Structures are given as C-alpha cells and as structure tokens.
Structures
1.
Amino acid sequence: MNSKLQKIAGGARRQSAWCVFAVGLTLAAPVQAAILTVTGTGDTIATDGACTLREAITLINSAGPASADCPNSGAAFGTSDEIRFNIPGAGVHTIAPASPLPTVTTRVLIDGYSQTGATQNNAAVGWNGTILIELNGGGAGAGADGLRLLANGIGSTVRGLAIVNFAASGIRLGDPVVNGSSSSNSVLGNFIGLRADGSSAGNGIHGVSLSALLGPGNNADGNFIGDGTAAGRNVISANGNCGVVINGHDSNTISGNYIGVDPSGDNGRGNDACGVWINQGADNGVYSNVISGNDGWGVLIGGNLAGANSVLENYIGVSASGLPMGNSSHGVLVAAPDNSIGDANDGNTIAYNGGRGVAISSVGPYSGNRIRANLIYSNGNLGIDLNLDGVTLNDLGDPDAGPNSLQNFPVLTSATTGGAIVGTLNSTASTSFRVEFFSSPSCDPSGYGEGQVYLGSNNFATDGSGNIAVNLAAGALTAGHAITATATNLTTNDTSEFSACITVAAAAAPEIQITGNATPIADGDVTPSLADYTDFGTTTMGTPVARTYTIANSGGATMTLGAGAVTLSGAGCGEFSVSVQPATTVAAAGSTTFTVQYLPTNVGTDTCTVNVNNDDADENPYNFVIQGTGNAPAGAAAAIPTLSPWGLGLLSLMLGLGAAIRARRRH
C-alpha cells in the first residue's frame, strides 16, 4: 500500500495549530467526576434493579443525585461525568427507546467501549474493533434523533456505539427548538447508520447533524467528527440524506472517517443524498476521510457564507484500499466562495464519480475557490467544470465573469519523455499565477483533462498584455500519456478548468539536419548549388575556397558524431579537404560546424561526396555532393602545342631553309 493511501485510510491529517490544540483539549483525560453505569437495555426511569441509558442521561443532566439503580461510582457530579456500560450477557446489546432520549445538556463521556468485550479499532485500513452497544430508534417516534447534545460549549464525547433507525439524525449537535450551543464535542469510533455487525439500517435523515437552533449566541462550532486516528474513525453510512451535515456553523473538523462505505472501507453503503454537506458554514475542515459510494455528491459546500472551508487528503469516489467506488453525482460540488479543494502536499483523490470531479456551481457567481494538487481522474464528466456547462473556452485577456471568474486555462504545446513540458497562458495582465501540471494514461473524452498524476507546479507572472510562457521540468514521462494543466490566480485564488490534453512525444532521439549558407541541404543531394554552398563556384588554380556547414540536432536526445565524423569520397576529392571537423557530440536543440576547402590544381570541374557519420537512426551517414571549378591564372602564356614526327620534320626543314636564306644575304 502506498504511503498516501495508508495516510488517508488511517485518517492522518494536516491541520492548523489551533485545530490540533483544540483536539488535545477535547480528548485530554478529564478530572474524574460522576460515573454512572448502564446495566440494562430497558427504557424506564424506575426503581427496577437496572440502570437504563435514559435514566443515566437524566441523572447526569440534573447533576444527581444518583439513584439506587444508577449509583455513582465516581466523584461529584458536574465536572466531566461519564456514562459507562456493563450490561450482562455476551454479544450485542440493543437499547430501543420508545420515545426520544433526553437531550444531553452537560458535559459527559458516553463510552460504549466500556462494555465488556468491546474493543476500539486499531487497523490502519478497515476495521478490527468490536461494538456491542446498539441504539435502535425504530420505536422512538417521529423527529427523534439518536443522541442530541446541547452542552453549551463545554464539550461531550460519544464513542463506541452503533446508532440506527432513528427518524431524524443518528447524532445531533444542537437542538431544533431549544436555545443553546453544542461546541467542542467529539464523536469518535461509532457506527452511525450501520448496525453493530456492520449491516445497513440507516437513520431517517442524516448520520451526524451539526445544527443548533439559529439565533444569537447559538452555535455548533469547534466539534470533531472523528479525530484522525484509527480508534476515532466513525463509519457513517446508509442514512436517508447525508452522512455529515454542518448547517450554518464554523470551525468544525470531520477527520479520518468512512462515509458511505462499510467498516472494511471497500464495500458501498451509500448515504442517500451526499457524504458531507457544509451549508453556510465557514472555516470547517474535511480531512483524510473516505467519502465514497454515496447516492448523490461526495462533498457539497453551499451558501454565500460558506467560505474558508478546506477539503484535504480525502478519497472521494475511491475505496479505502484504492478501488473504484464512485459517488453517483459529482465528487465535490461548490456553490460558495473562497474554499480550498486540496492544497500543496494535501491533495484529494477524486475519481470514478458519476458526474464531475469538481464542479463550481453556476449559481452565484462563486469565485475564489482554489483547486490544488488533487488527483482527479475517471469521472463521468469533466475533471473540473466551472459553470456546470462543459468546457469553458479561453477568452483573450480573461475579462469574463462567472464561477471562479471563468479563469483561463494554460495552452500546452509540447511534452517529451525527458520531462520538458512547455506551453503558454493568456489571462489577466501583470498578475501572478500558479500553473499545475498533471499526467494520465489517456485524455478525457472531451479532449480536456483530467489529471491522474500530479507532476508539480511553477509560478509565473503575465506581462502587460496578459501573456506568459509556462513550463515544467517534470522528470521522466511515458510516451503516449496525456498531459494537462490548470492555472490559479494567486491574487483571487480562482482555479481554471483543465487544459486541453497534449500527448507525450515518443522517446527522445537525435535528428540530424545540415545547412550551408543557412539553407537546408537534403540528405543524398546530388545537385550542387551556389545557394547552399554545395557548389564552390569557379576559382583560380592554387587559390583555396572554404565553405562552412552547420550540423543541427533537432531531436530530443544528444547526437553522437564521433572523431573525424566528416569524410570525403569520389574521384574528384583530391582537390577537396576537410579543414575543420565538427564536435564529437551535439546536444538536443544544439549545433556544430565543419569546414571543407577546395584548392584546384588544374583547369576544369571537380566533384566529391561529403559523408557525415552520426547516430540518427535513418540518416547515417548523411551525404551530399559538392563541386568546384578551377580556372587558369589571368595573363598566363599559351601552352605550346605538341607536334607529331611529321610536323617536327617539316618544322626542321623550314628552320634550315630560313638559315640558308639569311646566310646568302650576308654574302
């Protein structure tokens, strides 16, 4: 199992120092106060020889005094009281209230793990704990919650219970009709919507509802649903609406839970509408949960006040062991401003969902939603969709408005197996952007996105025209894989949709091209030309002419030429020589030169073939024909013709006759 999967399945999280400090305060061992022990599964408040859960809650709320059936085995009431369980007999003990249980109005620990034989989970993935106390609300009546906490901010803990079949929610933090707050509570290690054996039963509305009566001074803030540990993991599944709902409250943490799956984390037990719903709440954290298999959305954040919420390191649409288990609608739907879906080193895995991976609603418009470092793939629609209307094409200068300001995405132009990714971004002028790059085995059917592997990011600033070149040295990439990118405005935090895909080019190889006089010379050329220096022209005998040629490597890998790479062949090569050899290697996109000299020693045209050895797979050697023409020096004497023997005899006779005539004249 990879480390990230283990971290998510086990509930590891990254939170603010405040959040960690608050967990410590909530879970620190309290000063011992009253301890009441439930010894029967009944639902009475009577002297009948058994302490019932209803009776224990009533006595805790009233700060005693203890009864004969519910004796206090601790200290004084009212500091940090406990309700424990010690019901005789083996196996699961079911408590079936005939009406709603009393709202808990003081700080208390309700500890199902105190029942003999019950054990907390300690499996990093899945569940190996044992729950033996089950609250079954089938007879509790309309509107009944399993447990309702209204402890006015001093923090209660509920752990080790299975809570099923209540008409409303399994656990409600707050009260729908009574003023008061329900803050700093912890809900840990429970099955909510599943029976103690892990089978589905559900609650009528939500698994856990954070919903105090709205009004001044009332809140359900600073609560913890799960604490990021295996022991604190709740399984919240099979409920009639959502797994966890935060309704208008702030600074709560949902961490390390299984929401929509069974205790193993690998079988679907979906909540009917969504996994997590944050409605008009701010600064809430959804960390390191498995939120999969739900019949609607994985995570829904809605309302103009629902800002600064963080969804980090979750599996959304993926089982605890990484198997496909999509939510039937979108992985994450945001109809709110200024939230974070993933962050550097804290991205979510959002995959196999029936709708979009991440959708920013068209209602609003809602902007400032940062989508960072997530692994988004294999969803039924776009990986990221702004406006819920399919691909939103770029506009010059990015002036349009809408969800996330309809932020332009990058335009990628090339990607090589060596990891060089290159592209451009056009958006708001003189603005800084973070561009993130992703790869997937194949492109989304739309041709845009998604991003199964996060490759990294770089920051860039556009110029006064809104343009900037973008790039990433990503390390080795697989030929044929699809590369995409997103852009996030670092001023507004608006993130774009995924860019169009480009395909990683085939494995890098050298590619040779030779030019003369900046003009390409084709491999195998046999038509010398003055334009490309393959024709040296006419020159006087004994006067050298040099021509320099450039060898360029337009491929993606270093080209090897070796020592003495350029050779000459052919009958006329005696008049030519290689005066300067090229470098032995040429880097990708690099070049080198060599020089050939022509020194004619006779009048006439000479031809020769130039051969350039290299490791280009289909152009080795690279060759072409050159030629030059020698000319006699200006003013040179004409050559004396060669005479035949008959001509020589005639010449001798004429010379003798001339001598005789000159002798006679002297006499």
2.
Amino acid sequence: MNLKHHLEKIIAGRISEVSGLTGSKALINYAREATFGDYQANGIMGVAKQLKTNPRELGEKVLADLDLGGIARKVELAGPGFINIFISPDYLAQQLNTLRTSAALVQPLVAQTNVVVDYSSPNLAKEMHVGHLRGTIIGDALARIFEYLGQTVIRQNHFGDWGTQFGMLITQMQDMQQLDESELKKELADLESFYRDAKERFDADPEFANASRENVVKLQAGDSTCLKLWQAFIDISVEHCQALYDKLGITLRVDDIKAESFYNDRLAGIIIQLDDAGLLTESDGARCVFLDEFRNKDGEALPTIVQKSDGGYLYATTDLAAIQYRSKELNANRVLYVVDARQSLHFQQVFRVAEVAHFKAEQCSLEHLSYGTMMGSDGKPFKTRTGGTVKLMDLMEEGIARAFDLVSEKNPDLEESERREIASVVGIAAIKYFELSKNRNSDYIFDWDTMLSFDGNTAPYLLYAYARIRSIFRREDIVSPHEYTILVNDEEEQALALKLLQFSETVEQVSEDCYPNQLCLYLYELAGIYMRFYEACPVLKAETTVRESRLGLCDLTARTIKQGLSLLGIDTLEKM
C-alpha cells in the first residue's frame, strides 16, 4: 500500500468534513524534526485562508475526530497549521509482514494505461555514441518501472533510417556489389569509418555526389535495387545496435523498431489532412503550419515546416504521423518522448499541431521528457582526447576495464574469471547508475573516479551494500528468512521499516513525473539507514525471536535494493 497516498486521502477527507469545502487536499511530507521518518500533513492553511479563519483553530477541529485506523501512535498539531503524524511501530510491523510474504513489493496501479515510450532512436547511418546514452538508459528505466506497476508498455525505437545520407551510403555500397554477404559485413564492421569514407567521396567527387542524390530519389520512389542495398545496410546496422543494447542491458528488441521509413507511406496523408483542416500556409515555397503561440523574440510567427519546397518531408511530418499512429492505432494514453532538451521547441510545436489537427485522441497525453548533456571535465560536451565523438561500445569497454582493475585491487585472491564477471556487472552498473542518479534536466560532468567509487550515491556502493546483506544469509542455519516474523521496536528498526514502506510511493512518484533519480536517491538513503540499523541492532547475536525479526528486516532490505536496481536496469551480485 502507498502509505503516503492513504494518509493524504484520510486527512483530506477530514479537512473537507470540517470545512465544508469539497476537493480539499492534504500534502504529505516527511517531518524533518521527527526522530525517525514520520509524516507531516499540510493542507489546513490553504483551506483556512479560503474560510478566512485561524489555521490552528481549523487544525484542532480536524484533529478532534481524526481516525487514522491504527496507523499512528501519536498525532499532534505543530507550527501555524501542520499535522505531525507519528507512525505506530505495530502498524509498521503489520505492513512489513504482509510485504515479506508478497511476491511483489509494489501493488499494480489501479488505473490501467497504455504507455508508449519513445527512446534511444539512433541514426543508422552511424554507430551509437555517448550522445545516445542518456536517452537510452532513462527511457529503458521508465519502461521497466511502468511494466512493474502493471501498465501496458509499448517500446518504440524511432530509428533514423531514411533521408539524404542514405543515398550516399547506397552509392558507396553499389561499388561493393561484387562482394558476398560475409565480405560486405566485414566492410561494414566499422559503420563510422564506412560513413566517413562515403562522406569524403561525396564532398570530393561530383560524380559520386550526383549519383548519391539520384539514389535518394530512387530510394524514395521505391526502386528495388536501392531498396535492397538500403535494407542490407539497415540489417547490419541493427545488428550493431542490438549487440550494444544486449551488453548495456537495455530491453529494446528488433520488434520495437518503428523507424522513419515505417511512416513514409503516411506522410502525404498528413499533408492532406493538415490542408483539409485549413492549417497549411505556403512560405517561400515550403508548406508550413503557423500557430499564434509560437513566435520569435521579434514577435514574428514561427513556422512548423511539414513539406519542403522540393516536395520532401521533414522530421515534423514524420513525428505527426507517429503521433497519429500511436494515439489512434496503439490507443496510447501516454506517449513519452525521451529526447534531449535541444528538441524542446520542436516537440512543443509538433504536439500543438497534433492537437489542433486532431491527430491525437483527447485522452492521449504527449510528454517530452527532456534531458541535459554529458559534459567532459572541461565543461564541454564529452569527447575523446582528440576531440572526436566517443562510441558507446568503447565507453562500456573502458568502464568494464576500469572496474576490473578496481576489483583486482580490492580482491586480488579471487580467480581472474570471477573478477572479470564482477567487473562486467560493476562497470556497466556504474555507467548506468551515474546517469540515472542525476536530474535528467541537468547537464553533468562525466567522471570515472566518482562513478566507480564505493562511497556516496554510486552503483558500487549499492552493489556492495546488497552483497554485504546477502552474505549474512550464507550461514547454514538460516534457511528461509522471508518466513521470519518481523517485529519493530527499536528506533533504528522503526526508521528502516518506514523507509522500506516508502519504496512503493517512490516508484509510483517516478511513474508520475519520470525522474529516475528519485529512485536512486531512495535506494541510497535506504542503504544508509540499513547500515545504521545493522550497527545499532545486533542481528546474529540477538536472542531467537529478535534475531529472526532482524533477519527478516535484512532480507526485505536486500529484496528492495535488488528490485530497485532491477527497475533501473542494473544487475546485482551475491558476492563482491
């Protein structure tokens, strides 16, 4: 049960009863002044202002007949009109004992929704680089969280597989038609080099450039030869991406691809529909939609261009077709676009055009989940030492190599195979967690030393905390810790118990506002509270009933950390 929402509902109902105002709300926060994590409700002052009455007097009336059903051991009025709620240890124990016998740590959301998550979206003309890291990791974590809460999740990988650059690549491949499939794959093993070679020829050789432009036209017209070469390139590129997704632990699969080419046959229809709706205006030969709310600093209307003067279509056209498909055919209630912040204006315009053109159903919410830039130590976008773009596969390999050195330093007696297995998990986890622990709207400095540290809010710290808890249960006389009845008496037990119950509300909050860093912070705080509990409350040396209770708390903490990291796409280790 989400304790926070449950308390809010009870207190809001009581405020409404006392005030006579319907729809009163009670905001529940954690009271910082409490000895251990209790709650504080604030909803009285707003209602008192509406009634023009003293908030403390109103608060006394609310408390007079407030029935929290055994949840609280004490409730008191504080400050100008806050209600402090001190949770009963018996209630905490009751809830934890229900939780320990449950397969899931969170109940599914009551409201069932179809959630489309659009993320990763690489350009198949090039290999994935660090610029794709944030969107891929954030999107995957959100998809996992929605699924865990019982929602229907439809992953959409909007690959860039259409456009002028593919004419250039097709022309390059035409010169290799004498190669068999295995030889061609070898040539395309390094997509970046293949693209660079084609671009150099395009810039230096007018004949090659003209042939490339002609192949663009042929491709868009459905020429069978061009389509065959294009498909061969796409297939090999998708293999590159899937290998990277598998190594990074991303749940995207080939079936999730809905590339730009998927919408190609729908684009002419989008133009017709916009025209029929009276939304199109011609400007310098291009067809545009002008909406009053989008203007530049001089007050001039900004266009959403949907068709170029040469008849070609743009990203906006494809995105409008995608919105129509996702809303009307996939029946999405929410469509989440995990795309960097530089595209904010684009999505504001496209979402608004889709709304006024009725391309989306009324109940469909379109949300741009923007994110900032990964920066180097120099405060500029992260690059190689030579100034080039860092390939994502190279970044992961370096993370694993650094983790191996770290594991070897800390555990030199372990077999090399075991150290490499640990390093593979720690290296990938460190990269993913470092990203997810940051507010997605913020730029951040990429730093190996920080992300691989065993101190602070990092993956190694949490992986070690989990492994340390699990080490307790390797004793032969501890068989089924999840069967131990949990008691909550000491202050540290109460603090840990309440934090464990806050897992549900944390996950639900992330599903609402889509900030995975909130879950990271929760797990870090949980690990810290557990460490204080373990230091203050003897576990293995306690008498039988208390020992079993505390083992139950240890086991539930480990399960929660493991589940939380799993939602972030991070594997755990039983030993480190």
3.
Amino acid sequence: MAQPPILSLEGLGLQQGGRWLFGGPKPGEGAEPIDLHVLPGDRLALIGRNGAGKTTLLRLIDDRIEMDRGTRRVKPNTRIVFLEQEPDFRGFASLMDFALAGENAPAAHEVEAIAGQLDIDMARDAATASGGERRRAAIARALAQDPDLLLLDEPTNHLDLGAIDWLEDWLSRYTGAFITISHDRTFLKRLTKATLWLDRGTLRRKEVGFGGYEAWEEQVYAEEARAAGKLDAKLKIEAHWLERGVTARRKRNQGRLEKLNQMRAARAAMISESGAARLKLANDEDFKSKSVIVAEGISKTFGDRAVIKPFSLRIQNGDRIGIVGANGAGKTTLLKMLTGELEPDEGTVTHARTLSGVMIDQQRKLLEPGASVRDILAEGGDWIDVRGSRKHVQAYLKEFLFDPKIVDTKVGILSGGERSRLLLAREFARTANLLVLDEPTNDLDLETLDLLQEVIADFEGTVLIVSHDRDFLDKTVTVTLGLDGSGRVDVVAGGYEDWQAKRRKPVTGKPKSASPTSPPAPTPAPAAPKSDKLSYKDQRDYELLPARIEELEAAITRGEAILADPDLFTTDPQRFATISKGLENARAEKDEAEERWLELAERVEG
C-alpha cells in the first residue's frame, strides 16, 4: 500500500509586512492559500524570484514561523532538518560547538565522519572561519542528523567544486525527501525529480525535475497571456510583464549562445593543443593591438608552495575569462595578479593604457540600510547615467527586474538577493571596459542570473569571472583558466564542461609547445559521420516514443490532480493506493522512455 505524505500544509495563509504573502482570508485580499504535500523520497526544487517567499515557506515547513491560517501535519517520528542559507554562528567557540548545539544535536562521531569527507576541521574558531568553512560545517551538522526530510536553502553557496560534487553524490544516494532552493542550475538538473514553483503567492507543483522547469514556466505564462486578452489595458500590462521579460530574454539568449560558441571557436584556434597559455596566431600584430592584459611568465609562491607556476596569457578586448578551481587552488591570487592588485614573484603583467575596471566581489560590502534605492542608484535624483546614456531611475530599475515603485524603499527592507541585484545595477551603470566578478551568482535568483548573463554578453569590454557556478560559466565565458591546485593553469576555449572534458582526456605523448608568433595549424577536414543505422525496432521507438511520453505526462497530471485531495487517503485508502501505484509506474515508464528516446536521438544526430 502506498505511503501517505510525510508532511502536509493545507490552506496555508501568512501575513508579512501588513499584506498577505500567502492565502488572504477573502478573495482579492491576497494570494491563494497554499497546499503542499511532501511524499517519502520526494526530490523537490523550490523555484521563485527573490522576495517570493521561498525561504519563508521552508521556515513554515520547519515550524519556525507560525502560520496565520491553515494546518500543518507531520507524520509521527519524522525528522525534519533545515540547512539555512546563513546559519547563525554567534556564541559558538568552534564549528563543532555549533554542530552539537540544539535539541536534536547529532552525535559527535557522525559529524566528524562527514566533516572528514568535506575536509573541514571542526575545531576551527567559528568567529574567524571563512564562508566556505561555515557552510561545510553546517552541512556536516545537517546530514549527521539522519533526516527524513531535508530542507536546503542555497546549499552550494560558498562551496568549491569538489565540495559541490561531494554533496551531489551524497544526495543522489540519500533515500529521504528533500526540498532545495538553489541558483545552481547544474545542481538542480542533476538531483531534482519534481518542481515547486512559487510565483506571485501561488504554489504550483509539476512532476518534472528542474530540467523541464523552463518549458513549463513558459507554457504557464503563455496561458496567462491568452487569458489576459480579456482584461482591461492596465491589468493586461501587469499580466504580461513577467511573460515578456522571461520568454523574450530566453529567445535573445539563443542568439547570444550561438555568438558565444563562435567566439569560443575563434579562441580555440589560438590556444595550443597542450592547453598551455602560449598562443599561436594568424596575425600576431593585430592580436597584440587588441590585447588589454598581457601576462608573461608570471608566477606566485607562498612559503614552499608554488600557487601559480610560470604562466603566460594575452587577454583581448571582448574576452570573457572564467577562472575555476577548488578553494585554495589560487583563483583569487591569479585574478589579483591579472588585475594588478598583486605583484607576481616573476614575470610581468601589462595593461592597456585605456583599461578602466569595475570589480564586484563576493564580500559585497553592505549597502547603507537607511539609504533609499534612489540614493544608491541616482544619488537621490530621478536620473542615472548608464555607461554614457541618461535613463530615468525607475525605468532602469525595471531592467533589473525590480518593481519601479520600490524606488524610495529603504535598502534595509530588501532581501539579500534584492540587495545583490541592486548592487549589480549600480555597478553595471559605471563606465568601464573591464568587469571583474568574484562569485557574482551568490544570493541571486534564476531570473536574475539570466539577466546577468545577458548584461555580460552585451558588455562591450573584457570580463574576468571567478565562479563555482558551472552552468553560469558554460553560458558566459569564452576561455576558462582551470586551476587544479598543483600550480598549473590550464587554458581552455569554452566553459567549465570544456575544462572538465580536457581533464578527462588521456594524454598521448608529449605535447608540442607553440611560440606566440607561430602560425595556426591547418584546420583539418571534417571527419565523415559515423554510420549508426537504426534497426527497425529502434526506428519505431524513435518515431513513437514522443507520443507515448505525452500520454504518460497526461496520465501523471490526472493522477496528481486526484491525489491532491487531502481527504482521499482517509475516505478511500484503496483508491489512494491504486492511483499512487499507477502514478509511480507512469513516472518510471516516462523516465525510461525519455532516456531511451534521448539515446536514439543522439545516434540519429550523429
């Protein structure tokens, strides 16, 4: 017999700041009441804009906030553990003291076991620990409690790539349920099986992982746009605002990705097969004239450790350079040497005379809480200079996904993500031809990340980015500088996945070095496509599976609608069990069908 939900929120309503964030008591007084049922083993992505109430919803699930309306039901003996985005370490002498505090504290040996895998010393002073150390300590504490339901609020923030890989592997083997808020698209695509979408106070659920979210979102907005045709002009504008911003941006981004691929191809022709930083150019003088940063033989050693071994690179105007690697591998050191903030031990870094930079760092110096949005952007006025063009401050706010009405709102009232977005708006307005971004994606929602990708793509100068966000790098940079901790810097045309592919590729003999002025190797003729003819059965599957997948999706939607009745389990347990089993089978068949069709599609497309 199918198991009932381990947690249910029914008719949830919550007031915040004098308004109903969820579920006003009368029609028209607020958003719709929220119903949420979490089943054993659910793997849920919680999606929504900054300020939509995602973290608030997790706090309600964890019973940290009292709801104004509705009921909360939890299956007896269910352990719910909340990994907060910014855990409070005040009052704890060490990271271990933090981990062992609280009513449901885990055993010390369980914490140590996980901490060892995350390479974190739990004896570390909590007051001086870095953001990454605190994050790993909080993860060790949460996972050691053996939760049945794990609530994860931006779990990959401050983690390096190795720690993110470890967490993804742990969660892939975890048998409990989890709900996660994350801006890390790769993390969400790899782990989630269903999506909760919190949008303008309404919570929707669809049994597709994050990989299918954007198509679902556009479908919903398109349906709203059709319905909005019956409304008056003012309401129509409000209803279309989100839809226009999201779908139009994604359509534009398709063209930008094509342009990015062309830039990567051009850069690949300049990088030697060894991936070393020396370049081979068709026209070296032309290349030099466009160079804005030239690093020649630079290196850096701290104590006995070579953080950066001798390394050379020419950065052209318009390059988007991504710097990746584990914490401590030397990313910030390399960035500081390239920007002139840190002198190399050996070698030289030369900047073009016209180079003028803006740096947005991961520390994000706090904006004055008592200042208004207008003060931050326009020094209290109505107009702002945006890279030489004059714009009204309210119009500029809308470009960064703000409601223009917030122009006189105090910064202290904004959410952390909204403050980060405001800082980006201010910095991107400055006139500069070098943009330096150190972990720019922390605290940003997915739509703001889309916007950030668009702004970077349209930026006419050069961009240097340090980030652990794999999807963001894959969609943004033309060249990746990969640091593996040995001091070596790999130079790869492309993004994070291109660097990973190079690392996986076996070395076949000693690579030849290329001089900076040597001509490019001839472009080889394209290889003939492999013959991979489909059998009769394969061809039939390739043609018929899409229709079968649609049938299964429709059946899953019908089953979910029936199970959404909170009284069904009590009034007709046999029907609940039958439909639950059928839903489980349909989801499994759909997953198999999708994997089968994708496999065949790859063969067809060569």
4.
Amino acid sequence: MHSLWNDAGAAACGSEIERRIYTSRLLGQDKSLVLHGGGNTSVKLTEQNILGEDEQILYVKGSGWDLETIAAAGFAPVRLEHLKKLAQLSELSDPEMVNQLVTHQTRATAPVPSVEAILHAILPYPYVDHTHADAIVSITNTADGEARIREIYGDTMVVIPYVMPGFDLARLCAARFAADAGPNTIGMVLLNHGIFTFGQSAKESYERMIAQVGRAEEYLKRNKAWDFAPAAVTAAHGIELASVQARLRADISKAAGFPVIVARHANDKSLAFASRTDISTIAQQGPATPDHVIRTKRLPLIGRDVAAYVEGYKKYFIEIEVQAKERKTMLDPAPRVVLDSELGLCAVGKSAQDAGIVADIYDHTMDIISRATALGGYRALPAKDIFDVEYWDLEQAKLRKGGKPLPFTGEVALVTGAASGIGKACVESLLARGAAVVALDLAASVVSMKSGANFLGLQCDLTDEAQFKQALVQAVEKFGGLDMLVLNAGIFPGGCRIDSLKTEEWQKVMRINLDANLMLMRECHAFMKLAPCGGRVVVIGSKNVPAPGPGAAAYSASKAALNQLARVAALEWGSDNIRINSLHPNAVFDTGLWTPEVLAARAKHYGMSVEEYKTNNVLKTEVTSRDVAELTAEMCGPLFAKTTGAWLPVDGGNDRVI
C-alpha cells in the first residue's frame, strides 16, 4: 500500500465535497481496494436549508457510482438526524429502508444512496471510507480469520462478524461500536466483507485506510502468503482451441437463454491457477465477498461440462430457496467464470464490458484464494449467505439499471474493409446495436479506430490465409465466437476495357474480391454454425452485378461471382441455421475513393453539378455509407430472420437495375 495523497492536488479542492471526491478517487484508483462500483465513502456536513435552518447532511456514495470516477453528482445528500433515528428501529425492511433514504434526500436528482448509508451515519466521524481490500479479505476468509485480524490490529479495529449489508448490519455495527470502540479505535473490519476507516479529515481517513490495509499486507508477507510467482506456462493458441472456446460459448449461451461473450485469459497466472491439483477444492468454496456473486455466480465452472454445472446450480437454488422469507424466481443457471487447464480463465458476460468486469473480479479472487490457502485454507461464507445476496432485490437492481439490452447484445460481428467508407459505417451501426465488433483492414489505422471493451481492430491482409486465421483466433479469444460476418473488403481498379485488361490485373481483382471472401466464408463457417441466434452473412456487392458497365470487367465479374457464391452458400448453410444475403450499393460517394476532385471531374464529364451527380437516381436522393451500413445491420436482425439468398439494391433506384 502506498498513499497517493498529494498536497498540491488536495490544495486545489475548495470544499469538503471536493476533498471527499479527491480521496474517493484515490481509493478507486487502487484495484486491490475496490472494483467496479465496490466500496463507498461519505462525509458529514452542516448546510442551511431553504428556510435558513442548519441541517446535518450525510453525503454518501450513490448506488452504481464508481469511486475511481465519482463526481459531486455521485454523492447522495441525506438528512443525518433521520438516518440516526432509523438506526434505533428494531427492524426495517429493505424496500422501506430504500424509501426512507430516497425520501429524505435534499436533492431530488441525486442517485439512490448506498445501502450502507445508515451504517455511515451512526459512525461519529466526519469522514468514513469503506473498501473490500484484497489483503483484508484474504485474511478474514480463513478458518481462524477473526483471531488473525485481532492479532494484527488489537484495539485499533472493532471486529464485526458477517451480516448481510443493509439495516441489520448497521444496527449490529452500532451496537458493537458502542461496546468495543475505545480511544485507539480508527476503524472496523467486517469479516468476509471488508474494512472501514474514519477520521476528522479526508486525508486522515484515507491515509488510515492505506496504513491499515498495509498492515494486513505485511502480515501476509511475514506468513509467506503474499507473492506467488506463477510458473511460466506455454499457452496454446490456434483454430482448434478457438473451436473449443466457441463450443463452450454455445453451451453457456444455451444454458443462459441468451447469447453471451466468453473472453479467454490465458496468461501465466490464470493457466497456473486453473491447472492446480487442488482447484476443485479451493475454487468451489464461494466468492471472496458476497457482493461479487451478482457478477460471478457463487462458483466457477471447472472444466467444460456446462450441463453438469447447470444441474448443480439448480440444486443449489432449490435447496436454499425454500428457506427464503419470500419466494424467488431462479436466475439463469449459466456459469460466469470458467477455469480450464487448457483455456485458462474464461470470463462470461452479457456484453464484453460485463465479461471484463467478471475477469477483473476473478483475477483478484485468484490472489485472495491463493493467499488464504497459504495461510491454512480458504473458506468462504456458507452458500445460504451467498444466496441471500445473489437474490437480494437491492443487488439485482444494480444489474437492472442498464434497462432493456440492445438487440445484438452478447453477439459478435466481423467486418472486413472496416477502416473507411461502408466498412467503417458498418462497424458503427453494429456497435450501436450492442454487438462486439472485430474490424479487419489492410490499413493500420483500423487498430485504433474505436475504443472500448466491445471493439477489436486488427490489421490484416485478407489474401494471406495464415494472417486471417490468426486474426480469427484473436477474435474468438477476445469474444468467444462469431455470429455475423460482413464481407465488405474489395478493390475497384481504374477503368479498363477487356481488350486492354492484363492477366495480372484480372487475377489481382479476383484474388481480393472473390478468392479472399471464399476463404473467409470457409474458415468462419464452423464458428457461425455455433452462433446462439444463428449465423448471418451480409455481402456488400455492387450495382455492377445486375447492371455492369463498360471498363469494369474484372470488378463486375468478381462481384457477380461473389454474389453467386453467396447464393450457393445460402443453399448449403441453411441447415446450419446460417443465412446469407447481399446488398448492391451504387454511387456511395462518402468513401476514400471519391475525393472532391474526382467527384467534380466525374460530374463535369456528365455535364452535371456535383449535387446533381450525387443524386442521379430515380428517387433523386444521395446514398451514404451509413445508409448501406444501417441496412446491413438490419439484415442481421430479426426483420430479415426468414430471408436468405436475397439481394437488395441500395442505390436510390437505378434505371438499368430496375
């Protein structure tokens, strides 16, 4: 642990709220303290209300906000005195607790306060910090965790046995704090949960957190339970293992009832952990902290037998649900973490972002389990306690905040010729519909064209079969499989009549526009065959297929052959639940081929203005890359679910095509 406090940075804070934001972000920057919305912080202030009266207000982190990026809007201002009175009640249901928190805020637009707001309120310190520090949890998640914590901290920490977060925890903490806190008390350790520190200033509370977690780290080091250098493992990469991963994704998607992203992590640490001889024992105890269950499920899948995992989850639900105060509806029984000696760690999520969160959480969980095991044995909470959090309405609400998923959520699309023009627009249209997108192009700019968890840009020469296979493996490792393929890459050579067409020029056009696409379809077939919602291919053809023009023999013939190839594939692959359709755009001028100079010259050649030339079709409308891309995306969606082998013009109406 190292303090990130900087006097200059702190001096720039002009108010207590700004200092609260500053130290909250310092905590959030350290992933060994909090992950993805975990932890919470607060500050107590006196403010004047609209009547001119002084009120004590607790500013506490709002539910769903992340400490690393929290802003003033992320803190919910709640009347402190009311919270203190709530803590004196003998009982308070979860819905009523949330109602009381929300209705006693001083800002209507504030987020829902943290479920631990009452706990923050009863602690008699202006600043309170709470984290789920890896080092603390590594120690508490052992058979003698409480004794070890007392050995480390003595009377500086009040020790709280595990109670589910919310009202009951707040009442217990109030009682234990009143009974056990003394002049040396600077925090609390909540067993199997995390650590609280408090102080009179932002700096004091923050630096106490760093120092106390540091003491836990030193304890682990002294007991040889800190650093574990994994043995170097040669990870396998290739089409065969990618096929295994895609099959795993298909099985998990079927179990979940919706398509999922399955991201493979084959680093030394993950492979070594998944290959441990005791993995079936240490990884089947439960999560490091109960709140992780809403992301990771209670247990990971060991190996690839998804059906057995599903049966185990159903048994877990049936056995514990009967003990619940209220009836529960079972969530999907699919795993979110897979540990496999060949694949390493596979993180499962409804989206690439969700899978990333799962991977981050389990990366830290592996450290916690390894350290606790070295201390004498990792021990998580009983399944009943984990179930209560997994099926707790307040935790489930965090996952529902995203609303209705986008139509291609959990699906993977691959787009060729993606760095510009129609290809780039297709990437944007597919991303906008929630797909994870793999973008391939000969141009290096494709790599950094977009950012975000759901985008992978790869420079690739599609005429090089080995290069494409490597790109396909990378795509599957990152996202788990392939659902949609957009064949857009191609070249349009300069005008040349047949009597002047050189053999090498003809072959070059055929190699790129036809042969490469045959290879792509062939190599992608096995993966699209496993697509949870069926595979989809969209071929970006050309007006020259139904209406060729002079001087474009190679281009017209290559696109016509590609269109015929697609029709044959539609016949052959229908039984594999793969549909293939073609679009034939014309006069799409917002691409790299059409510079202002070229456009002006062509318009002049036909005796038109540029605007007349751009709208020279039956509907007198301009066709853009986005127009083609939007129809491409729709052809992958439910509107075209019963269409295959079709070809559709996107040209504003061309009289020769009509």
